Please model this.
Amino acid sequence: MKISLETVRQILRDTLGFDSFTAGFIKSVEENRDQPTAEISKDGHLCYNPDFVKKHVSCKEDLFSLIFHELLHPMFNHFIYCSGEIENIAADSIINAVISTVYAGASREGNLFRKLYSREGVEGLLRSSSQMSRSRFERVYDRLYGCRSAGSKMTTGELITTLKVLLDIQQVSSVLLIGTHNGNSGTGNQLPKDVVGKIAEDIKRSATANMSNMAGYNSNLFDLFMEALRTHLSIKRVILQRFTTQRKLDKFKEIFRDRRSSCSPIPLYPSKRDLVLIASGFYPGFFHNRITTPNKKDKGLAIYLDVSGSVDQYLPKILGILRNLKNEIMSIFLFSNKTFEIPFRSLLQGKIKTTGGTDFDCIAESIIERQLDKAIIITDGYASMSKANSEKLKKQGLTTLTILFNRAQNCRDFEAFGDIVRLEDVCN
Model:
């Protein structure tokens, strides 16, 4: 099968949508016999081994699986693991299962993987329709391809640990794996964060649409996939734009239009006065054109992030979402019983200050002290604020966006100050 740039882009658009960022991200395609299967570089260059393609890729569904397999490695953050044989088997097993089930139509239920791997032994984990009954891999395989009652979801880390018990290096050293598995130079380590985020948006949208066609498949696999994608998404900037404030300076751009007047013998954008003169039969020698030009200025976001003891398990997910704002946000406010302002990059490095407990009075006092007119609060909602502080915030004219995570549905202390939304509802 001959692979061209247009073929690759069309296959991705068929699955991800006509306006897919991912399709446009692929900039060029070329043959490369030094690459065992295929690889996508950080600048969107796809190279593939023509011998591998000629032998195994016979239809557009096979080509989709080959390309999508490489794109999914960074979605699962698989390159945080060591690049050992067993780690690679585990990563590919999860990716192939997602492609074969969530994208069953686009991949013809993983047709490429069924041609590449045998139905028994460790290779059976890398494909659908394997014969795993009464084998040592039966329970692991059920976690990947079993029905909805197959049990709890298995993360990549848990699968790696399990396979280290069930396998030895000799059993997996001869297994052919798709894509790049050399750690430091792999796709997942090369793609810029903003690119990974935009690809994740494409994939999340298409995967959600495909969910209705997954009857009979393991929903835990889909949940694991969606959870992985969310770590690359960001809060919608159009929402954040409404809560920028001049009381805090970051690098969050506010776009506006400047108006100015200029004189010209040509009526480019004539004023009302000029139009009236023309209507009365008088032609001005010079027109007072009103010109608007786009401009921008830096504003800030006052984000208060709950770091009390009850939210520890959710922080990695939240930081993954906030990470995409690292170029715009200079600092962030952490709160528990006290409020700490720290550099945003320090937060992303895991440098968290907390007193363990939680209340909203410390937020109120911080907002009052800084005379903020707008603020964003990210919390699980399990805290309270005194009536006195609430009255002070109302008098100050505060507007807030309260973003809830965990299972919280409401936050009464901030109801009077603005919208209360769920974290997943405001992410791209």
About this structure: The mean pLDDT is 84. The chain has 19 helices and eleven strands. The chain has three domains: 5-230, 237-246+300-426, 254-297. The radius of gyration is 27 Å.
